[in-house]
Amino acid sequence: MTDKQLHALFNPESVAVIGASSTPGKIGHSILKNLLEAGFNGPIYPVNPKASSILGRKVVNDISELPRDVDLAVITIPRNLVIPSIDKLGEIGVRAAIVITAGFKEVGGQGYYLEQELIEAAKKHDMALLGPNCLGMINTHGLVNASFAAGQPDQGNIAFFSQSGALCVAILDWALGENIGFSKFISLGNKAALDEADMISYLGKDEKTDVILGYLENVNNGEKFVQKAISHSNEKPIIIIKSGTTSAGAKAASSHTGAITGSDQAYSSAFLKSGVIRAHDVETLFNLAQAFSTQPLPKGPSLAIVTNSGGPGIMAADACEKSSLNMARISSASIELMKEFLPTYASLYNPVDIIGDAGAERYFKTMETVVKDSNVHSMLVVLTPTSSAASEIDEICHGIVKIAQKTDKPVFACFMGKKIISSGKKILMNGSVPCYSFPEPAIRCIEQMHKHFQWKNNPCPLPTPVSRDKGRAALIIDRVKKSGQNEIVEFRAQEILQAYTLPVPRTALVRSSHEAVEVAERFGYPVVLKIASPNISHKTDVDGVKLNIKTPDEVRKVFLEITGRSARLRPDAHIAGCLIQEMASRDCKEVIVGFKRDDQFGPLIMFGLGGIYVEVLKDISFRLAPITRDDAQKMIREIKSYMLLKGFRGDPPINFDAVENIILSMSQLAMDFPEIYEAEFNPILVNSEQAIVADVRMTLS
Amino acid sequence: MTDKQLHALFNPESVAVIGASSTPGKIGHSILKNLLEAGFNGPIYPVNPKASSILGRKVVNDISELPRDVDLAVITIPRNLVIPSIDKLGEIGVRAAIVITAGFKEVGGQGYYLEQELIEAAKKHDMALLGPNCLGMINTHGLVNASFAAGQPDQGNIAFFSQSGALCVAILDWALGENIGFSKFISLGNKAALDEADMISYLGKDEKTDVILGYLENVNNGEKFVQKAISHSNEKPIIIIKSGTTSAGAKAASSHTGAITGSDQAYSSAFLKSGVIRAHDVETLFNLAQAFSTQPLPKGPSLAIVTNSGGPGIMAADACEKSSLNMARISSASIELMKEFLPTYASLYNPVDIIGDAGAERYFKTMETVVKDSNVHSMLVVLTPTSSAASEIDEICHGIVKIAQKTDKPVFACFMGKKIISSGKKILMNGSVPCYSFPEPAIRCIEQMHKHFQWKNNPCPLPTPVSRDKGRAALIIDRVKKSGQNEIVEFRAQEILQAYTLPVPRTALVRSSHEAVEVAERFGYPVVLKIASPNISHKTDVDGVKLNIKTPDEVRKVFLEITGRSARLRPDAHIAGCLIQEMASRDCKEVIVGFKRDDQFGPLIMFGLGGIYVEVLKDISFRLAPITRDDAQKMIREIKSYMLLKGFRGDPPINFDAVENIILSMSQLAMDFPEIYEAEFNPILVNSEQAIVADVRMTLS
Fold it and tell me: What is the pLDDT confidence band of residue B463, given thresholds at 50, 70 and 90?
């Protein structure tokens, strides 16, 4: 897909409507009507085999009769005619098509194959393809409404794309009611060719778009999505709803990482990685859109609240304390200034309560002082329609707009009420100051904007390189693959870890109790014995691990017990003997590092504390590979039980560097070998000195 | 306060306005104007020393000249004239007063004492007193608007009281804009006499009120509040915002319970206990008010979603899965029925997706089938304004209203959009079907209604009695009080536990290493030694606890170490010796039970797992004492780490009965002895057989 094709799709110079209809209510009629009513400047060609004129336009009876300069064709004809039409359109040089017609992949069966043919046809003719099964596209600034949506949105700087046509309809109607403008409005339909990543890429460069909104149920290509989002989220906020939080994939989970890691975490991690802001509902999507499209980002977390009423001020302060923002400490210089014009009963601290009888002048002077305060990064102006405020509501709002225009800090309003304040709300809207009905959504918006500021100003270095002997690891993995095993046995997996310079306990495979004692004597007591079998991946299922073995006699006895029990419980399993390992120091904490390969986004790295913290409390952090050292540090700090690692009740802190290295190596391993489907180091025994990978499990796909 | 006075306040037959003014904009003018405009039927007497006529009404120049039949006086005169006026009004038999005037307790200093005098004056004359520092009161059905608020709300079945006058103003304006009606609208002001509990009590019996809403920053009297709320929340939903989540009280915390337990938990627990629904923001307050005031409660958790669009259907299902509701399983009989009239592409399962071209008839038949299904407890009708839906929007809405009126199950609508759907929204509103713009708030409302249904249908038995020797415990506590100590030393506290038949380990106080060995031999090894000092409450601070002591030599050595170290580190402390205890079995889990006395609501009982679960992860549950066995069971089940107690990785479940008994005893102890400020059993060692209180701390107030 070249830019030329996309340009033809969004900014066509001429449009053909294949399947234009003279019957009002039919889609082919609505599309033509919308094109005409939007005031499109170029030629419009209705195509219909029978009619001669529709809506005053001369009809072309067959595609072959169209002139050779058509940029965009909007297709709304029966399913079985779509592909032949694409071919004909391609032959006369049409560069872009919007297929409105449904009945493709979404209905399964024959529809699936038809969609494949459609993709091929568009590809053959080098044609941009939007849909099928979509509502169409609107470019307000280009005066193109190539959709059958009811109503024409105003011009604006917000672009919206959606995988759900119904949501397009709903949001368009909502925007019309709220006077919200759009730059582009795109229904993606089945995303046969053009998908969310293409939209981000195109809209990211679109001069008329300042904020990109999207509604998705899945992404077509995770890697492409992340790559496009990363390259544009720095310039323009990308805010997306991802719905349909389905359960994990079809592959059965063979580790805790696998059991815990669902596709929703992968989406969240992908959004986090690429600077995409995730909205969890449509209301939030729009609140954020208004905030990001009108106000600058706050350069710090400190919020000042100016209010004419105590109760709502407290509610706003509560909401601020619950967020990652904090209440700004108003400087004493500002307080001195405000003392001069505020009444005695006013509260000069934050929230600055200028009392119910405040009018426009008092509001203005206070806002001017507060917003200039260098301790303040953002300001929220709260108003309840007291009689003083109500009688000067327009002047107050003009004042807010004036202040917002003069400062580079974001200014938000929260007007509690509806009827009396409505004229003021309009002034704010026209002056590009977002106004909310309640303090909480306003503060959630400022919080997201501050997070986005932090993300933008994160140096975002390249993934931290890890030193390793990739060739040696590849040899081992190849050998396992050739053996036809899926599971890499611990002893082999340890060799891979060594190739990644990860510390593992001294380990040997022993085939008899005699050999076990010999090795134990060499390692020194206590030792650990574990069943060694390529067929037994959950060793604890057969009670196949015994720690803290202290004497030769015990070694002998445990060896016979473990191998005997395993053979009895799993008669099908090949028992290679036991692994014998030196025992790590007892004052260790257990952590887990794992990854699972998400179908869309690749390896999702997981970190958590061992045992119940992961299994019961689900206290885990995630990142998509490849990761940076900064990511690894954040993963460790994000879990709730982080305090246990930092040192608790007099324990020294663990060796964080060592754990970070293990996380980084896990990420590197996942990137190096796409054939590893999942891996888990569990437990990793960590104390203030070192971190040792005491057990490992790896599964090939 | 008798009902007669309250009746005079809310339903006066005549009203005097003390401080009526002829100047528009003045409060004394607005009140008179509001009274007149509301259409009040009885006589209205403006009182003003100078004027002769205001707003066409003859003015009374002095209170003494008023007739003897005045029920209610609304007072808006300078602060220093208020109390003399109350006296004069009392003398002529006025039964109720609303004091609008500010400058009392809220300004501190002199104002505080004036408010005390005001309370006394009202009490002396047996007068109901609303305010001071309030906006007034509106009774829409009585045609009384005794407030200076701008605008007159419609009649409705929702009552609202608020501690913030500004919030009254905001909500009134909001209600006017949304056409929401009210029964009573009450600004509480400083709550000098009438408070939230009085309002709940009055509105609970008010025939015009079906739902009670409130905004509070604190409660005047916790016990009274809980008592009144309990007696009315069963009949009418009480929905309250409590803002200003301040940090814990002034008393320094001497236990984990103390450190963790803030007043916000006490409010939440008090609301839970009394069936009050807590809203966390104004938007939720109103969403809930609309839901509760129009629809019946769902009798079960199963929700059915009927939608004309896939995306919004998925969003609704996501929201349902995140809530405590579940998606109803549509019965096969219903599915068979729907197959007859729904198109092939429709999805017959839940969400029932009737496709974008659905009109009124398809909606109606589907809703009718779904709502009758016995697997369905509530129904949410989702609509996006597709052209088919838009063209029949009014019929669709009439259909929804008809269905809702015929069924005893709650029916909600979620219409995504704004402009096209606005006529439909009005039909729903007039037909008492709540309609939301997004699925999430609708589902949160249904969830709260289901929770309220469960609460109402909880047998709510009396607090479970606990057998104990209260006299014996009283003797011990008295002795400690007389000694002037605040902290009850462990040895004495153990005696109290024994009086409550709680299991404690065999314990003895030993004063020498020799005596320690003697006792250890009698108890049997291993034993525990703990420092015994009334001055050392955190024994671990001096490393004053040693577990698992196995030999006489070790006992001797540890005794000398502990007492020596304690004396060295805390030279001021009186060292009584050591406590020696038998050692509980090693396969125990540690839990904590504690309580702290909240200033408003009394003892707040806490439960959690020992160690980091409480301290780091804050995984705790709360209830206000006195509690029932059901409460104790829920407290245990509410914590996230409950699964550890239930049996994890092959461990047997703990003895839940024994832990419940300890929680119940803690509650009983807290109720029996108001002089105990806080207490904590930590750790309680629990396994499948028993629960032993291994350490205890109690502090007197």
Answer: confident
> Contact A309/A254 with Cβ under 8 angstroms?
no
Q: Is the pLDDT of residue A258 over 80?
A: no
Cβ-defined contact of A281 to B440 (cutoff 8 Å) = yes
Yes or no, beta carbons of B173 and A386 under 8 Å apart? no
Assess whether B330 and B474 both reside in one domain. no
Are A565 and A639 in a shared domain?
A: no
B330 and B194, same domain (yes or no): no
The closest CB to that of B418, out of A177, A420, A422, belongs to A177
Residues B126 and B160 in one domain: no
Which chain B residues have a beta carbon less than 8 Å from that of A393? none
A494 part of a folded domain: no
At residue A459 the predicted structure's pLDDT band, cuts being 50, 70 and 90, is: low
Write out the DSSP string of B319-337.
Answer: HHHHSS-EE----HHHHHH
Chain B residue with minimum CA distance to A317: B244
Instruction: Output DSSP code: residue A465.
Output: P
Separation between Cα atoms, residue A162 and residue A171, nearest integer Å? 10
Choosing from A137, A163, A180, the residue where a domain stops is A137
Instruction: Please check whether residue B291 lies inside any domain of the structure.
Output: no
> Among A345, A439, A640, whose Cβ lies nearest the Cβ of B107?
A345
Tokens 């060609």, residue?
A: A45
Residues A452 and A569 in one domain: no
Based on the domain organization, do A420 and A379 belong to the same domain? yes
Q: Do A177 and B440 touch (CB under 8 A)?
A: no
- B700 contacts B480 by C-beta, under 8 angstroms: yes
Q: Which segments of A179-331 does DSSP mark as H helices, in order?
A: 196-205, 222-233, 256-260, 263-274, 282-294, 310-322
Distance separating alpha carbons of residues B512 and A75, to the nearest angstrom: 98
Confirm whether B686 is domain-assigned: yes
Q: Say if residue A549 is in the same domain as residue A597.
A: no
Q: Using CB atoms, pick whichever of A162, A170, A308 lies closest to residue B417.
A: A170
CB contact under 8 Å between A177 and B617, yes or no, is: no
> Does the interface ipTM go beyond 0.90?
no
Neighbour tally for B626: CB within 10 Å: 21
Interface test with B, best of A23, A31, A167, A169 (most B CBs within 10 A): A169
Q: Are residues B384 and B330 in the same domain?
A: yes
Bridge partners of B54? B57
> Considering B552, B582, B612, which residue would you say is the last residue of a domain?
B582
Find chain B residues with C-beta within 8 A of A385's C-beta: 150, 169-170, 173
Smallest Cα–Cα separation from B131: which of B218, B192, B215? Answer: B192
pLDDT per residue as tens digits for the range B540-588: 788 889 988 999 999 999 999 999 999 999 998 889 899 999 987 767 8
Note down the domain range covering A385: 296-456
Contact B612 A644 (CB under 8 A): yes
Of B282, B314, B384, the CB nearest to A244: B314
Q: What's the CA dihedral at A278, A283, A288, A289 to 10 degrees? A: 110
Residue with tokens 């003897």: B68
Report yes or no on B439 lying in a domain: yes
Distance separating alpha carbons of residues A328 and A305, to the nearest angstrom? 9
Single pTM value for the model: 0.87
How high is the pLDDT of residue A9?
97
Q: What CATH number does residue B517 fall under?
A: 3.30.1490.20
CATH classification of the domain holding B612: 3.30.470.20
CATH of the domain at A314: 3.40.50.261
- Per-residue pLDDT of A616-628, as tens digits, reads 778 899 999 999 9
The answer to whether the CB atoms of B420 and A173 lie below 8 A apart is yes
Distances (CA, A) of A153 to A41, A144, A481, B692: 18, 11, 58, 70
Looking at the structure of chain B, the number of domains it has is 5
